[in-house]
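For homework, think about our next protein:
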Amino acid sequence: MAWFRKKPDEGARHTVTIAEGQWIKCDACKEIIYRPEVERAGRVCPKCRHPFRISARERLASLVDAGSFEERESGLRTVDPLRFKDTRAYRDRVRAAREKTGLEEAVITGLARIGGFPTVLCVFEFAFLGGSMGSVVGEKLTRAIELAIDKHLPVIIVSASGGARMQEGILSLMQMAKTAAALDRLGAAGLPYVSVLTDPTTGGVTASVAMLGDVILAEPRALIGFAGPRVIAETIRQPLPEGFQRSEFLLEHGQIDAIVDRRELRDTLRRLLAFFADS
């Protein structure tokens, strides 16, 4: 006779099913976070306030008044002037980027209202070849700035870019001069330019449009710089400060005007537009 009898359910394994894709790891604090919490916080880590990267369309939706955005120059398309090829043909890379993002190029430009104030808004899409600035991106930005001059409106550019597009060589680098010249004409017309730096803003975009704003804002912990840390260290032959290419370091050293939480960015832009409208 057995000393005890096992209950039917005793010892059975109880498994917990976790829905796939419901958890996300923060690159900053390394915490595993419930995705809906991140979404409710505006795609920001609720533990350390690190902002996750968002698409250009998501950025537009978070900033502009509902139904107010009117896209311009959406039909401009990149060609392959140098017939460039590395491990893949440039044409194939552009085609893949279009399929991935649903966009024709790495920046969206157009007219919008923020808190009722009209503006010309340009938003980079980092998922499109790293938000790199080639001939079409430079042309779209220039036309947007010229539109602002024509309509006597302020300009807001939200940057997220790895810099100039290497596959277009010198043609890409010339966009730095072209967009800077257009912004100079905007300033001569007495119109304000607000630059918003997000993670990452680097290379030729940092060296041109991103750092030319009358007011320069940045998201928390955004990577902002020109060359990479290794290249800088080898050039100056000195150790680099901790976090020297993050927005907090730049604010401390007077390179930007303010760090703005993503949830407060729309209201901050509204107040800036109201200030410039009254000045």
